[in-house]
Amino acid sequence: MIKIYGKNCVYAAIFNHAKMDIYVEDNQIKKDKNLSSLLHDKGYKPTILSKNEMDKKFGNSHQGFGALREDYQIYDESILNDFKVEEGRVLILDGIQDPHNLGAILRSVDAFGFDLVILPKNRSASINEVSAHVSTGAIEYVKIVYVNSLLTAINKLKENGFWICGTDAKGDTLATDIDPKLSLAVIIGSEGFGMSKTLVNASDYLITIPMVGHVNSLNASVSTGIVLKDLCKRKWYALS
Questions:
Q1: Cα dihedral value 204, 86, 176, 167, nearest 10
Q2: Last residue of a domain, one of 39, 69, 99
Q3: How many beta carbons lie within 10 A of that of residue 78, not counting itself?
Q4: Which of 106, 135, 157, 160 has the fewest C-beta atoms under 10 angstroms from its C-beta?
Q5: Where is 16: in which H helix or E strand?
Q6: Same-domain check for residues 161 and 226
Q7: 157 is in which domain, residue-wise?
Q8: 210-237 average pLDDT score
Q9: Whole-Å CA distances, 188 to 17, 18, 107, 228, 237
Q10: Pairwise pLDDT comparison (212 vs 182), residue with the higher score
Q11: Total domains present in the chain
Q12: What is the pLDDT of residues 132-177, one digit of tens each?
C-alpha cells in the first residue's frame, strides 16, 4: 500500500478505480455536496476525519483528501519486447534520484502525451508518496517500467523502430527540427551529471535547449517540460 494525499491525486485514483481506503476531512463533505454521491457511485466508503486527524495521518498538504492506495502498477521490462512505435512515445530517465523531480516529470509526461517512462533499477527515484503527490494524479495515467540496463532497453526500442533523442547542453539539434514522422524515445539525464556517456553514444540525436541567460543548466523536470513541449510542436507543425 502507498499513502497518497491531495485533492487531484486522490480524485485521479478515484476515476482510475484504484483499490484504496479513502479519508476525507469533514469540512470537505460539507463544502462539496456532490462528493458523497461521487464516492458512493464509484464504490468507495470514505472515513471522515477532522482536520487535526487528517494532519496527523497525511501531513499538512492533504487539502482535505488522503488515501491508502494499492501500490501503483510497475511494468516488467518484458513490456519492451512488444512495445511498438504505434503504441506511443517513450521517456527514458537516466539517474533521476529526486522524487520531487520524478513527480514533476510525470506531470509533463502526461501533459504532452508520452505513454511510457523507463527508469533504471539502480540510481533512480522510486515511486513513493512524494512522487505521487507531486505528480498531482498524472501517475495514474503513465506506464512505468524499471529495467536492469538502460542501454539494453534502448537497443530494444531501436529494434522496434524508435529513434533515440538524448538531451545535452553540447547537443546540436533543436527538438522542433526533428522530423515529425519519426517515433521517438527521449532521454533526460540526472540532476547533477546529465546523461551517461554510454547513452550519449547510443543517441541518434542530441537535443539542446537554447539559453541566453547566465545560467547554463536547468532543473531536470524543467528541461523535461521544455523538451516534451517542443517535440509536441513538431506534430502541430506537421498538421498545419
A1: -40
A2: 69
A3: 11
A4: 160
A5: none
A6: yes
A7: 77-239
A8: 77
A9: 31, 29, 15, 10, 24
A10: 182
A11: 2
A12: 999 999 999 999 999 999 999 999 999 988 999 988 777 788 888 8
